[in-house]
Amino acid sequence: MSAAVAVGIDAGSTTCKAVAVDAGGAIIARRLAAADPRIEAQTERMLAELAAEVGAGLPVGATGYGRKRVRAARTLTEITCHARGAYAHMRCAGLLIDMGGQDTKVIRIGPAGDVVDFAMNDKCAAGTGRFLEVILGRLHVPLAEVAERVARAERAVPVSSTCTVFAESEVISLVAEGQPLEGIVKGLHQSLASRVGALARAGAIDVDVFMSGGVALNAAMVAALQEAMGRPVKVLPDPQLVGALGAALSVVPAAYLFA
Amino acid sequence: MILRRLQYEMAGRVVGPVVLALEEWQRRQRRRGKKPKESPLGPPLECTRKLKELMSLHYLQGRYADGAVPVAWVTSGFPVEILRPLGFHVVYPENHAAMCGVVRMVTRLSDAVEKEGYSRDLCSYARTDLGSVATGETPAGRLPRPDLLACCTNICQTVLYWYRALAERLKVPLVLVDTPFVYGESKPHHLAYVRDQLAELVEAAERVAGRKVDPAELSEATRLAKEGTRLWAACLATGKHRPAPWTGIDGFFHMAPIVALRGTEECNAYYRILRDELEDRARRGIGGIREERHRLLWDNLPIWFATREISTLLAGRGFNFVCTSYTNAWAEAGMRTDPADPIGSAAVAYTHIILNQDLRNRMGILSRLAREYQADGAVLHSDRSCKPYSIGQVDLKERLARELGIRVLLLEADHNDPRAYSSEQAENRLTAFMESFG
Q: Which of A226, B192, B212, B337 has its Cα between 20 and 30 A from that of B428?
């Protein structure tokens, strides 16, 4: 195994992720766990585990909403880190859609990996991973079965509410009316995809579209996004770790970058 | 009446200055020996103390205005020059609402009228003002009861309903100046329509004041207002220097006299001192922030309750707002006034303010400001409370980025209601925006 040169940690609202990278920018160690509100304790524990695996004393880059609580780390916003992490895979200009637990980001990345522009959902977690989690939980549909259920749907049952709480009562009514469960789940994905598409201003996209974040692991959501945007959506490798990767790449000592 | 007038004059000329001097002395005593806090902002403007004095005196005198002189409450875009020769004491509910925002009284005042059924979707200035009237609470101690409400629709349509609500609540006459929206160029019949309303306004104001307008005095008030506009424009123009000698946030506070005291000699005297101080700072290379690395344009009203938080966050990374479309609005419209034709020229000037013109005009103003002030980025505040100012910003953002090659951020907030603002999210977006400059 090559030597680690930097560590990145993404203290998100739903999950906490940490990676160690080598001089080539490859992830050589990783940790991922459900977020603990005691951020300091959790991030310290994760960093200690990584240090035990790849060696101590490495520079740490931190991102995510809990970034300021990570000790002795350089902090950067999720926008910058996701762009850097994504560009390490993309190596070209593109549009990145990151759908995380409680926010969705759309980042326009330039040909040199710079952030050209970005947009985020505001003040509301509708249109995020948590939205799907809450509603699917209510319908007793396990995440592992979502893609298969959506594929089985004959038609999508429209879900018009974009508020998580209102959507929850809407789907309960739909179930009570006897609407097929598969169709409701498909409708939910379409509703979410159209919100994200609007955030990305789907009609104005002239570059490849990439996706990261925990929701990228849901194939049904990727398919719904492709349909809403009218173009292929490529899921990045290790989509949940893109932010942590970007944080690590941001603190790789200059000596390695020019080696 | 005579006693009341004496109180009013004494408050402005004797009691006020003494109280303020005493307060200033106490403040200095408290600060003696204390080390100034570390800040990424530049040394504070000397003028800030004078500004505080000027505005405090205005509000202090206002406490004794009703019964002493005629009192008018007016909208920010109202042709106030016309009321000056009749001796009106003028109160700007918007300026007063901003003051409530800075001292964080808005939630309480707004709650009071929301309980009466006013929607939270209404402008937070309107809710603050109506809340202040309903509860009698104000940071100014007391606002004088108006004899006349004067409303001009050149800033939005909300003011029409807001002032109607005030008229009903306070049982005072309301004069309305309706300004047709300008698409491209204004039409002669639009201007004639506004001019006719201004003539009617003069008659209504004369009835309230109990005397006739002296044409020479009206011309003089217009001359003073125009000179004030020129002086304010000169203050803003100092921002073109590198580094800019002040911040756009400073500008938001120092605009109070051109809004509330326009057409008076006190206003102009103040801006002469401010202009001289800014020009002196520019000559000596003293910046509004300690280290200016990037220059930004701000569009829309400020976020009154978070101005300090935002300017400090940005200054910490070398970003300064060197120009704002909002403060610029008071450096433009007044230029069209003419002392030789106070009414006719006011019709032209007040019809052509930024919010009464189409998006093409807005784009022209933003792009000219960005070029003249050499801004390398822009923050467009999408203001939940000010729909006319916020509509079209998505397109403006794209055009500014494309045509000027600058980075642009759309920041969602509210000018006066902290409940429509998420500090953590705003900080995150602003930080990400600053990081994108590399």
A: A226
